[in-house]
Amino acid sequence: MAVATAVALLAALGGALWLAARRLKGPGVRQLHGGGNPSLMHGKTVVITGANSGLGRATAAELLRLGARVIMGCRDRARAEEAAGQLLRELRQSGSPEPDAGAGGELVVKELDLASLSSVRAFCGELLQEESRLDVLINNAGVFQCPYMKTEDGFEMQFGVNHLGHFLLTNLLLGLLKSSAPSRIVVVSSKLYKYGDINFEDLNSEQSYNKSFCYSRSKLANILFSRELARRLEGTNVTVNVLHPGIVRTNLGRHIHIPLLVRPLFNLVSWAFFKTPLEGAQTSIYLASSPEVEGVSGRYFGDCKEEELLPKAMDESVARKLWDISEVMVGMLK
Ligand SMILES: NC(=O)c1ccc[n+]([C@@H]2O[C@H](COP(=O)([O-])OP(=O)(O)OC[C@H]3O[C@@H](n4cnc5c(N)ncnc54)[C@H](OP(=O)(O)O)[C@@H]3O)[C@@H](O)[C@H]2O)c1
Ligand SMILES: *[C@@H]1O[C@H](CO)[C@@H](O)[C@H](O)[C@H]1NC(C)=O
Ligand SMILES: *[C@@H]1O[C@H](CO)[C@@H](O)[C@H](O)[C@H]1NC(C)=O
Question: What is the pLDDT of residue 15?
Answer without folding.
Answer: 67
